[in-house]
Amino acid sequence: MTERPSQHRASALAPGATPAPYETQSTVLRPVEAMGLQFPNPVGLAAGFDRTGERVPSLVGSGFGHIEIGTITSSIDDVGPSTQRSGDARLGINIGSLRPGLDNLVIEDFVARLRQAARIGDYAVANLTAPTMHRNGNSPGVERLVHRLSDVRDEVANASGRRLALLIKLDGGEHGDAIPAAIIAARLHGLDGVVLVSNCLKRLNVISYHIAPLTVISVGGVRSSIDVRARLAAGAALVQVHRAFAEGGEKQIRGILGGL
């Protein structure tokens, strides 16, 4: 079986080199290593379905390799599974702020939520897909946000002995657009990856190679095993679904996993 293009091989590319073309191929369903964590499979549930995490125990049985809850903000005090979660699925915590923009107060809102996430999650995602809050991957202050969150992640890890993987979530933009400032900052300050919202395989391919060896989680328009294979072939390490599960439930997810 031909091996799919790997984001980890991308680090060997010379600066300015053109990434290899992606192609849809069959994959073998097996555990995935990403961000220093092992995921039982590459398919996860995107943030937005379960804002607080209270539904995690029931969602684990749906077959997901990871479940991302949130976005959590200061309006949500009690976060996390209402009972002990079981199984191998990883838990991600999507964090944000109720204030607009990315000034110092907003950044400290993110910091507070990151500290909260570190107590219960396997990874945290700073959500920059908030147009009503005037935040995106090129917002003024995005580099300061990423730098501050990176420092706090390391501080918490040193204090607890447990490292929380840290990512940012942003809209991927159009093919041919400049690389967003948030992605450049993620590489500069040692984040673990990005959750990229895009259904454009070419854009995913370019950003996956640009950001390697950081992890890319692809979300947006994934409804079938064919979609999952295409995202993996384009450079994503993990893929998330939302509407497919909201509309089709566990049966839809089992069908996607069966197709892999």
Average pLDDT reading = 88
The main pleated sheet reads as: 8 strands, parallel, barrel
Uncertain regions: pLDDT < 50 for 5+ in a row?
A: 1-18, 20-28
User: In angstroms, what separates the terminal alpha carbons?
Assistant: 14 Å
CATH A-level architecture: Alpha-Beta Barrel
What is the fourth-level CATH superfamily? Answer: Aldolase class I
Write the element-wise H/E pattern from the N-terminal end onward: EEEHEEHEHEHEHEHEH
Strand content: 15-25%
Strand line-up in the sheet with most strands: 3-4-5-6-7-8-9-10
Number of strands: 10
Alpha-beta classification: alpha/beta
Overall number of structural domains? 1
Q: Count the helices. How many? A: 7
Shape: globular
Portion in helices = 25-40%
Q: Write down the CATH class.
A: Alpha Beta
Give the CATH topology.
TIM Barrel
Radius of gyration (CA) equals 17 Å
